[in-house]
Design goal:
The protein is α/β, with parallel strands linked by helices. The chain contains nine helices and nine strands. The protein has one domain. It holds the Pfam family Patatin.
Amino acid sequence: MMTVLNLSFAACGFLGIYHLGAMDAFLRHGHKLLGSLGACAGASAGALVAAVMVTAPEKLEHCKDFTYRFADGVRQQRFGAVTPGYNFMLTLREGIEEILPTEAHSLATDRLYVSITHSESGTNHSVSTFTSREELIKVLLASCFVPVYAGLKPVELRGKKWIDGGFTDSLPILPVGRTITVSPFAGRQDVCPIHRGRFKTQLSLANMNIMERLVCESCSALSQARQQLHTCSRLQRTGWDQDIPGTLSAISVFSIQSFW
């Protein structure tokens, strides 16, 4: 019998389109995994994808469309997101409001864990309870707020000011169950690209090492806005048609044992 599985999506700016590609693959091929899914976690763009996974997976295509429109809107600004008069956070809020269902906060409570950072102390906080849809939206906005890039005023929530959760915990690991980590950056995450000639992507499940190959164009998540649309398209394809099918095959063949 499988242990409880969780998904965690890394902070990554506009490279979050990779997460949407991964989410697409989980929904298409990961019925066994989703049947054991306990919760989703994330920071910044990863938190947005985690929220959609928990509350509105049927809105996946809508999310892809919004991401392309959002990236294109930033690209068209003379100085990107920091162009005077451009409201990055308002555009993001409008996209979130389009996608989240009315009962999103109820669906997300105890199933969605969002990483945010206290603006004054610099300490991390994981939010998993939401009293209203508006509070959920504010938590997601806080997790995405990069000072200067996204604006000058941190997001106010529960009487305190918060900024991007990626500063203090960019890839949350939940305390109960096995957390499968997803990131568009090369490294030791369960699902991520490889760096040419140096790193190999490995997924360790039930003491089995499953090697997968991902080809990911290296780029900055917050800069090079003029290249973002081309990069987004490739990343979205990479996120779902390279690594995930092998990952899910491993999960379906091998029982995931408790790691306690």
